[in-house]
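Researcher: Here's a chain I'd like modeled. Treat it as a single chain, no partners, no ligands.
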Amino acid sequence: MKITRSDRSNIALWWWTIDRYLLTGFFTLIIFGIFLVMASSQHLAESLNIPSHHFTIRHLLFGSISIPIIVFFSILNQKQIKIFCIFGLLVSICLLLFILFEGERIKGAQRWFYLGSFSFQPSEACKPFFVIFNAWILTLWVEKSKSPGWICSVALIIIISALLLLQPDLGMTIVMIFTWGFQLFITGIPLLIILLLVLAFPIFMIVSYQNFNHVKIRIDNFIEGKTYQVSKSLQSFESGGFWGKGPGEGFYKKSLPDAHSDFVFAVAAEEYGVLICCLIVAIYCLIILRSFLYSLKTNNLFFILSVSGLAFQFGFQSLIHLASNTDLIPTKGMTLPFLSYGGSSILASAITAGILLSLTRKNISLETLKPKNYEQSNYE
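Model: Modeled as a single isolated chain. Structure tokens:
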């Protein structure tokens, strides 16, 4: 089906107003993720005595679901995005509380509950909803002097962080706190508060080290250089070289725990080489930098906080995964958006992608469609 510029249908308007660079970047990551999960999960499935393509089929299912989710959110306008995210955040917080009592405990953490044969992690869905809600209340605080926006923002991050630490999920807590701090910085809070937040982070890590045994073990192993997973991950990078060993030819993935999720980038390095790894990093950089560029073109505070906050969160999570795979930080068990196996992670990434595409759509009226060089965005 050919879509022309004279077409006034909803599909045509969506196509001509969407940022196709961002759209292509997200869809490319989804496709890469299918191949990487297929390559990294067969050995694990066989060791669990389940069909060899069990994880691949599930990843294909969630990848397929993520596409209509991206399209759905990208069609919504700014008001609809706010309403949906407020409701989504309230539901997510209720579910975070629910799993503390009824959740499934896996590897010492209580972060999931089951819907039939599928597990769901509420903290993943909470991430994009939190960014939009926090952007909204901070905007109200700046624009309306009597609004208690900053108090609500502080109270919200305390509640969410407490629920996450009770699971416990230190990695997700760090992502949420850093995203919150980044949005506060963009809002223009006093420098003294920023310095206090910076100084509070080492204290937070010391308290976590002393009170969470898994955090202590990971940090100790990182300092002593005894991390088994990371040693196998680094061997994957060495084995792959520049061109890689070829699809399905990886060796170290067979002895790498959670290769299909927490160490999927190492699998990409061994089988496809440095060249493909650089391409993957370039796609993430394209998405993040292009989103930041949009936020520089407007004075709309809600737009700036929302787009830059989502881009920061998306990039920060990706950075944690890449850094832990290359032994730059202790392992965190953080997924790589769209590439790692995990239904909750994929769906949360799809929501993030859809909201970014919605907010960065061009504002083209129904009466006239501008030429290709028309760059006005819907935040103006």
